[in-house]
Specification:
Blueprint (H helix, E strand, L loop, with lengths): L2 E7 L5 E6 L2 H10 L5 H4 L5 E8 L2 H13 L2 H11 L2
Antiparallel strand pairs: 1-2, 1-3
Amino acid sequence: MSWCVYMVECVDGSYYCGYTNDLNLRIENHNSSKNAAKYTKSRRPVKLIYSEKLPSKSHAMKREIQIKKLTRKGKGKLILSNIK
């Protein structure tokens, strides 16, 4: 099973970071479901701006914590580094 950490940009310009094993379903949930994160429910729609595949849930959880500790500027640099 493949896991990933991701960041979305909310309609208010804020970022939300999470991890999942089904990225498409998770983004759909953020935008339309009762299963959305409490933070994103009131900040819809969200747009996927960053994702990173990881080998396990444990790795994804650890990477999520690292990303959440970044400043907004640091998150911006990470997002830019992921643009191809």
